[in-house]
Amino acid sequence: MRLDEIRIEDLEVFANHGVFHEENVLGQKFLVTAVLCTDTREAGKTDELAASVHYGEVSAFIEKYLREHTFKLLERAAECLAEELLLSLPRLRKIQLEIKKPWAPVKLPLKTVSVSIERGWHTAYIALGSNMGDREAYLNNAVKSLDSRKDCRVKKVSKFIETPPYGVTDQADFLNGCVKLETLLYPRELLDELHRIEQEAGRERVVRWGPRTLDLDIIFYDDIIWEEEDLCIPHVEMHKRKFVLEPLAEIAPYKRHPVYGKTVLEMNSGLSV
User: Fold this and answer.
1) Above 70 in pLDDT, residue 45?
2) Is residue 244 packed enough to be buried (19+ CB in 10 Å), middle (13-18) or exposed (0-12)?
3) Which CATH architecture has domain 122-269?
4) Which of 16, 24, 198, 217 has its CA 20 to 30 A from that of 1?
5) Which residues lie below 8 Å from residue 195, measured CB to CB, with a gap of 6+?
6) Could you give the residue numbers annotated as active site?
7) Where do the 7,8-dihydro-6-hydroxymethylpterin-pyrophosphokinase domain residues begin and end (predicted)?
8) Domain 4-120 in CATH 3.30.1130.10
9) How confident is the model at residue 271 (pLDDT cuts 50, 70, 90)?
10) Residue 134, CB-side half-sphere exposure with 13 Å CA sphere
């Protein structure tokens, strides 16, 4: 369902952003347009401000943040401001942000220069597995590591299930589970974070499908289809793996595969034990 929009247009801010020293000292005018993407249905039904995003408070936040921080690049200013707004406003799901710099020192006639970005919360599903050491501790610590990041929010965690090894069968049984995660990280940034957590748990990539202290895979990321050599979303093997589908069906039974068109429940029901 498409989100509703609250628009703040050309908010005037005097701040000290720029590559040149004089810009950081003397300051100049910036114009900020913010489109706040949220669900206004409750506010529209109740007429209660608390059920919406307060554009007056957001305007004050933008002015204060840009005035109190100094950045060389508009790109950096926009990125940091968007993230702070998304972290600070529980009802804000996505933001379209444009920062204009009408006094840009380019020594040529122009109306303005600007940077426009769109940022928001994304929903990812992560598969967890371990068959070495204290398996449950490894899985629980991985969940805690993700939830400890300010740009990640763990929303649901499945029960952990015992499963036989896949691929290389001459090894100990696995403990597997799935996590529903809201994140501001992009897919490759999320992959890097999962690899960091695996490494922290002592993961060694020696034998493919071999024993491991911790295995973390991106199964879904919104409804995107991403195909690169070291990252495929949805996970290319997920529809064949009972140890992924069973815990995933517990927390997202009706999540639909963007390629095959089947729900997680349907894919899981179609696999033998």
Assistant:
1) yes
2) buried
3) 2-Layer Sandwich (3.30)
4) 217
5) 216
6) 101
7) 208-219
8) yes
9) confident
10) 6
Q: What single letter denotes the amino acid at residue 101?
A: K
- 128, 125, 181: which is closest to 151 by C-alpha? 181
C-alpha closest to that of 219 among 196, 199, 190, 193: 190
Tokens standing for residue 225: 């289809």
How far is residue 219's CA from residue 239's CA, in Å, rounded to a whole number? Answer: 10
Residues in the chain: 273
pLDDT tens, position by position, 155-176: 999 999 999 887 777 788 999 9
Burial class for 256, CB neighbours closer than 10 Å (0-12, 13-18, 19+): middle
Domain ranges of the chain: 4-120, 122-269
Place of tokens 């005018």: 29
Distances (CA, A) of 71 to 17, 77, 81, 233: 5, 6, 11, 34
Show Cβ contacts of residue 64 under 8 Å, excluding neighbours closer than 6 positions. none
Neighbours of 227 (CB within 10 A): 8
